[in-house]
Design brief:
Keywords: Membrane, Transmembrane, Transmembrane helix. The structure is a single chain. With about 475 residues, the protein is an alpha/beta fold. It folds into two domains: about 25-45 and about 65-370; about 380-480. Helices cover about 30% and strands about 25% of the residues. The protein has a 20-stranded parallel sheet that branches. Strands 10, 11, 14, 15, 18, 19, 22, 23, 26, 29, 31, 33 and 35 form a 13-stranded parallel sheet that branches.
C-alpha cells in the first residue's frame, strides 16, 4: 500500500523502520500521553502509515526492521485485524485517538507501554514474545480473550476503565510465562475465566473496584506456579471457583470487600497453600466448599460472619492455635451443622499429634449436632455430655462412679440392709459397687435387701450404673469407628 503526501515525521518513520531505529518525540520523560493537548501537530502519525509499514516488505541486506516510536499521537484507526506482522511493534508513550485493532493478529512483540488508549481490541491475538501494557492508561476495555502469548503479559501500574463493566478480558487465554500486574488499578471486572498461565499471576498491591459485581472472575483458572494477590484491594467478588494453582494462593495483607454478597469464592479450588495472613477482616461472605489445600494460613479474626465450609479439605492450619479459637468459625457456616468441617479440624490436630485438641473438636461436634435433634435426642445427648463428655471425657465417668460409690458406701455403712438369706458378710463398699456395676456380680446385691428410702437409693445406683455403662460403650464405639 502506497501512502502519499507523507509528513516530515512520517518520512522519518519510514526511514527508521527498516533499521529498527527508535524515534523519540518526547520533550521530557514526564509527559502525559493522556492529555496531549500541548503536543505539536508535528508529532502526529497517521495509523494508515503505521499499518503500511508493518504489512509491507521493508527488509534489506543486514537489516532487522522494527517499529519503535515514542511520544506520538496516532491519528485514525490502526486496523491490523488478522494481520501477520513479522516485526516487533513498540508504540511507547503514545496517544491513540481510536482503539487499535489487533484481533486475530500475529506478531513477534507488542509493546504499548505508557500509552493512552480508548480501548484495545486484541481477541485471539498471538504474540511470540511479550505483550507489554506497563503504565498504560486505558479508559475502555482490554479484550484479550483467547489470546496466546508465548512470553508474558505486563500490566504493572496500568489503569483500566472508568465506568465499570469488564475492563480486562483474558478468558481462555494462554500465557507461556507470567502475568505481572502489581499496582494495577481497574475500575471494573478483571476476567480470567478458564485462562492458563504457565508461570506466576502477580496482582500484588493491585486495586480492583467493581462493587456489586465481580472484581476478579477467575473461575477455572490454571496457574503453573503461584497466584500472588498480596496487598490486593478488591471491591466486589473475588471468584476463583474450580481454579487450580500448583503453588500458593496468597492474599497476604489483602482487603476484600463485598458487603451483602460473596467477597471471596474459592469453592472447588485446588492449591498447595492458601493464605490470608495479616489480611484485613473480610467484608462479605467466604465460600470454600469442596476446596482442597494442603495448608491454610489465616488467623481466626480474618474470617467474616458467614462462611461455607462443607467439603473443604486441608492438612494443616497455621498458626497453631487451641481448638477453642478455631471452633467459632465452624459455628458460622451458612449451611448450619456441617459434620465434615469438624472432622477436618479434628484430623488436622491429630495429624500433628495433638489428641487433646482433636477430642475437644469432636466433643464440640457432638454438642452442635445435639442442637439439631428432637427433644428426646437432646435429653439423651445432655446425659452423655454430663456423664462422659460423649466418650471424649472418660475421666468424668470415673468421677461419677467414685462419687456414687462413696454415697452408697457411707449410706449403707450407716444403715445395713436386711439379709435375704445366707450369703457373704456384708461389706458396704462391695455392696454399693455391686449395685453400680451392671455385669459383675459380687453376691452382695442378692444377699441383702434395703427397705424404705434406702431401697430407692439402690434403684438410683443401679440405673446410674447402666447409664454410665451405656454412655461409656457409646463413646468407645464412636472412638473405634473414628479410628
Amino acid at each position: 500500500m502506497e501512502i502519499l503526501d507523507l509528513t516530515s515525521l512520517e518520512q522519518r518513520l519510514c526511514q527508521a523502520f527498516p533499521r529498527g531505529a527508535s524515534i523519540d518525540l518526547r520533550q521530557s520523560p514526564d509527559e502525559d500521553p493522556e492529555h496531549p493537548g500541548t503536543w505539536a501537530s508535528e508529532r502526529t502519525v497517521r495509523a494508515e502509515v503505521i499499518r503500511a509499514l508493518l504489512l509491507g516488505d521493508a527488509s534489506g541486506p543486514g537489516e532487522v526492521p522494527g517499529l519503535h516510536l515514542i511520544g506520538a499521537r496516532i491519528y485514525g484507526l490502526l486496523n491490523l485485524q488478522y494481520a501477520e506482522i513479522p516485526h516487533p511493534v513498540r508504540l511507547i508513550a503514545c496517544h491513540f485517538e481510536q482503539p487499535p485493532d489487533f484481533r486475530g493478529a500475529q506478531t513477534r512483540q507488542l509493546d504499548l507501554s505508557a500509552s493512552h488508549l480508548p480501548a484495545l481490541m486484541a481477541t485471539a491475538i498471538r504474540v511470540d514474545d511479550v505483550l507489554r501494557l506497563t503504565d498504560c492508561r486505558i479508559s475502555g476495555s482490554v479484550e484479550l480473550g483467547s489470546a496466546q502469548v508465548v512470553g508474558g503479559i505486563f500490566l504493572d501500574r496500568t489503569r483500566l476503565g472508568v465506568d465499570g463493566g469488564c475492563v480486562l478480558q483474558l478468558s481462555q487465554a494462554s500465557v507461556g510465562n507470567d502475568i505481572w500486574a502489581p499496582e494495577m488499578v481497574a475500575h471494573g471486572e478483571i476476567s480470567l475465566g478458564a485462562a492458563r498461565i504457565e508461570g506466576v499471576l502477580d496482582l500484588e498491591d493491585a486495586h480492583i473496584k467493581n462493587a456489586n459485581g465481580d472484581a476478579l472472575n477467575a473461575a477455572h483458572l490454571t496457574v503453573g506456579t503461584r497466584l500472588n494477590a498480596g496487598g490486593l484491594k478488591a471491591e466486589g467478588r473475588v471468584r476463583l471457583t474450580a481454579a487450580k494453582v500448583t503453588g500458593w494462593l496468597t492474599f497476604i495483607e489483602a482487603e476484600l470487600r463485598n458487603p451483602g454478597g460473596v467477597a471471596l469464592g474459592v469453592s472447588s479450588c485446588e492449591a498447595a497453600g492458601f493464605s490470608l495472613w495479616d489480611a484485613a477482616p473480610v467484608s462479605g461472605d467466604v465460600k470454600m466448599h469442596y476446596a482442597n489445600f494442603k495448608v491454610i494460613h489465616a488467623k481466626p479474626q480474618v474470617w467474616p460472619d458467614t462462611v461455607r465450609l462443607d467439603g473443604l479439605t486441608y492438612e494443616t492450619l497455621a498458626p497453631r492455635l487451641p481448638a477453642s479459637q478455631r471452633l467459632a468459625l465452624l459455628e458460622r457456616d451458612e449451611d448450619g451443622f456441617v459434620p465434615h468441617a469438624y472432622e477436618q479440624l479434628a484430623a488436622s490436630y491429630r495429624r500433628v499429634g495433638d489428641d487433646a485438641e482433636a477430642r475437644a473438636v469432636q466433643l464440640a461436634k457432638q454438642r452442635r449436632h445435639r442442637t439439631t435433634l428432637p427433644w428426646y435426642g437432646k435429653l439423651w445427648g445432655h446425659l452423655q455430655d454430663a456423664t462422659v463428655g460423649y466418650g471424649f471425657r472418660p475421666t468424668r465417668a470415673m468421677a461419677w462412679l467414685l462419687a456414687l460409690l462413696l454415697l452408697g458406701s457411707v449410706t449403707y455403712g450407716l444403715n445395713h440392709p436386711a439379709e435375704r438369706g445366707k450369703g457373704p458378710d456384708f461389706n458396704p463398699v462391695i455392696y454399693a459397687l455391686d449395685l453400680l456395676l451392671p455385669i459383675i456380680d459380687f453376691g452382695q446385691e442378692k444377699a441383702y435387701a434395703p427397705t424404705g428410702p434406702y431401697q430407692w437409693l439402690s434403684y438410683l445406683l443401679i440405673a446410674a450404673g447402666w447409664i454410665l455403662a451405656t454412655t461409656i460403650a457409646a463413646g468407645v464405639t464412636r472412638n473405634l469407628n473414628r479410628a
